[in-house]
Design a protein that fits this description.
This protein has twelve helices and nine strands. It is of the alpha/beta class. It folds into two domains: 160 residues, 3-Layer(aba) Sandwich (Rossmann fold), CATH 3.40.50; 128 residues, no CATH class. A five-stranded parallel sheet has the order 2-3-1-4-5, sandwiched between helices. A four-stranded parallel sheet has the order 7-8-6-9. Helix 2 packs across helix 8. The N and C termini lie far apart (65 Å).
Length: 304
Amino acid sequence: MTDKKDKTADAAAQRIVLVTGASGAGRTTAIRALEDAGYEAIDNLPLRMIERLLDTTPLDHPLALGIDVRNRDFSVEGMLQVIDSLSVDPRCAVELLYLDCSSDVLIRRYSETRRRHPLAPSESPQDGILRELELLAPVRARASVLIDTSDLSVHDLKDEVLRWIGQPGTEMLAVSVQSFSYKRGIARGLDLVFDARFLRNPHWEPALRALDGRTPEVAAYVADDARFDEFFDRVHGMVEFLLPAYGEEGKSHLSIGFGCTGGKHRSVALAEKLANALAQAGWQVSIRHRELERRAEGQAGGKQ
């Protein structure tokens, strides 16, 4: 006996993506991306109406249902009950897409748009943001896929959503490999994190300082550390071991991060090497270099 749904039943089930997350994190953008991809999208549908919707004639398209604190009957308990109910319904193949974002970025976004937060209409947006993040913590913990939008543009977020749904059902686990700087903190939304600061640092080599870990010179310098090969082989082996297990448990997206001091050399070289190895093994892999992307955006913004 097993509590997993039969594969044949899953193939015929109505795919339903519940899209939620903090206000201002990009939920509307994600829903529009799903709609553009052929999903039947309904935003702010009352929780009590979801099961009634499924009792009607089955739809030919997958469903994307937007849910947030503005829903008239929203409650965390009610949403968790909906997730539990749909998860055991043989008619449904349900996934929870949670759009996350750091409180600092959310505060900045609200400041730029001068919007009032739905949970603090007469208070500062910061009060509402912190209140909502705390409220949604149990929902966030149930996410099938978590996308942190703190460093994503609207176009980046659309790409992330489309990359996620581009796979056939949930049979193929999508993998994201990222690099980041510990100076700016661990990248949000990571499932596995590896610290590369013990490797020798190209920053102290004048000829390599201006380069980054994507260049052969820096990659070779980092790989020449006596501890590199064993470290990479252990990480690679563990990831290859875990990916099928995560897929069997129904996880559709896994984020792996490498961090170093500046997020420019060691972590980038490792992320590139692991992403290439996983792609060669047949996994669907995307790669992000947080600090390099920020630097590129800053340079582009300075051009007139």
